[in-house]
Amino acid sequence: MHPTSHDLPKASRAAMVALLNANLATTLDLALQAKYAHWNVKGPSFIALHELFDQVHTAAMTMADTMAERVTALGGTAGGTARIVAASSALKEYRLKAAGGAEHVKALAAAIAGLAKPVRNAIDAAAQAGDAGTSDLFTGASRELDKLLWLVEAHG
Ligand SMILES: [Fe+2]
Hints:
The chain has 156 residues and is mostly helical. It has helices at residues 10-40, 46-73, 82-88, 101-128, 132-153.
């Protein structure tokens, strides 16, 4: 942990840094899986899904940036390299053989849900650690992920 005048106890900040970094890795994984879907989807709904999957990517990258900057605001180091993400993400590998729109919708919906669950759990974990700011960050991310899941599943 880096020195800071932040008033939360160091142990609480360290716990939040770990919680944020775990979800940062999963969020970056989701962002890349959304690009995989964006690039590789084919079929009659191509343009709608191609654009929707890019919207998921953009939203995930925005969320990742917010998590990473909360890590550094708390005195931590944001872990966002490809190797850290691969080692720490809670997601399974994307369904690489997915071809048609329906298969990509199912695969990306599973990835969004795979992040939504730990993010929802993190809301209470942060609140219990006395960090309302981090809890609020996860609340916003959770609401965004619920919306993204709806947008993707509505194409199924
Ligand atoms: Fe593109």
